[in-house]
Write a structure and sequence with these properties.
This protein is an alpha/beta fold. It contains twelve helices and 18 strands. The strands form four sheets. Strands 3, 5, 6, 9, 10, 17 and 18 form a seven-stranded mixed beta sheet that branches. Helix 7 links the parallel strand 12 and strand 13. It is globular.
């Protein structure tokens, strides 16, 4: 086995990243070494690449390897590893828990008090190899192609947000046409929602939303989303609203479009870190409001795997681009470009795992 690997590194506190040859890391007794088959790009990676205010305040150590949504083959297992073995195809839960804090000991590992995030707090997955603790290695159904195995982490966000309470027989509004919002449309459809609304600004992504099963697409640059939703629900508003954009106006519209006693999930991250709506609107709604952070470990992962394996959920329309890892600069620029002409981009360190060619 080689002693070095290529990895996409954040080498300086500024815009960009670069490919470097670095040593393949050693593993501890409780860790596994994974040969990466595919890793997908996330908005968090874009923040780090552009080195915006969030990245400047959040990233503590440079240089380091970027990326966190990934899948690959276990090629080496530590001496106390028992749940996975060499040859297993795994995906990675990116919330790495300490296993001894109050949250970890009470079934809340995904919000561990000492949480580390892969590709943020420690070396990530845009590389040929990756080391992670056994606890976050999820053994995969190998009938699922690598590009879909790599997106189970963000798909898990959509599953957790959509299904934290049942949606069957309910009207669901998804605010935001990014990949997580598009995944949420498909999850709501697969799990029995009867009216699904998707709001957004990008015609390309809104069209993907149609393919994912949205009953009503709302271009917020052209239509009043609240009025459309109220008209379609006899003036009551929607049973469920999922805020996935992080836009101030989106939060305000979402609360206005929620029926009294409904359910609202906050997933989008707000630039100004403020509540841009009258708090009394939330109080008098009388509904249930959730903050969504990651995925339940590992209840959400079972649901994601079952939905994909059963083919009840088809997320292939969201994966619009498959590219070699060496094309990272092009991939990041596609993610940054406005208007959006891309859904999810999956990068491959070895193109032999790139099924059905590239986009």
């Amino acid at each position: 086995m080689a002693q070095t690997m290529m990895a996409l590194r954040k080498t300086k506190r500024g815009r960009g990243a670069e490919m470097q040859e670095i040593p393949i890391p050693d593993i501890k007794p409780n860790e596994v070494l994974i040969k990466i088959h595919a890793s997908s790009l996330c908005g968090t990676d874009v923040h780090i690449y552009e080195w915006d205010a969030w990245a400047q305040s959040r990233i503590k150590t440079v240089p380091y390897t970027v990326g966190h949504e990934t899948t690959g083959e276990v090629v080496k297992a530590g001496s106390v590893v028992t749940r996975v073995k060499e040859g297993d195809i795994v995906s990675v839960e990116t919330h790495i828990p300490c296993l001894h804090c109050k949250q970890c000991l009470t079934g809340q590992m995904h919000v561990c008090h000492n949480l580390q995030i892969l590709g943020v707090d420690r070396d990530g997955a845009f590389a040929e190899y990756l080391v992670v603790p056994e606890v976050v290695a999820w053994k995969n159904d190998t009938s699922i192609p690598p590009e879909l195995l790599s997106i189970q982490e963000p798909l898990g966000n959509a599953v957790h947000a959509t299904l934290i309470e049942p949606v069957h027989g309910k009207s669901v509004v998804i605010l935001g046409d990014g990949p997580i919002g598009l995944f949420a449309v498909g999850v709501a459809r697969a799990c029995g929602a009867t009216q699904i609304f998707l709001t957004g600004l990008d015609p390309f992504r809104l069209n993907i939303g149609k393919k994912m099963g949205a009953d009503r697409i709302i271009d917020v640059a052209k239509e009043d989303a609240v009025q459309v939703i109220k008209d379609a629900t006899d003036g009551l508003g929607a049973d469920v609203v999922l805020e996935m954009s992080g836009a101030n106006q989106s939060m305000q519209s979402g609360i206005a479009a929620l029926r009294r006693g409904g359910r609202f999930c906050f997933f989008g991250i707000y630039k100004d870190n403020l509540v841009p709506t009258p708090l009394n609107d939330i109080v008098f709604n009388g509904g249930t409001f959730y903050g969504i952070n990651g995925r339940l470990m590992f209840d959400t992962w079972f649901t994601v795997s079952n939905l994909l394996s059963s083919r009840r959920l088809d997320v292939t329309p969201v994966v619009t681009h498959k590219m070699p890892l060496t094309s990272f600069a092009e991939a990041f620029e596609l993610m940054i470009e406005v208007p959006k002409k891309v859904g999810k981009i999956v990068l491959f360190p070895d193109t032999k795992y790139m099924t059905n060619g590239s986009h």
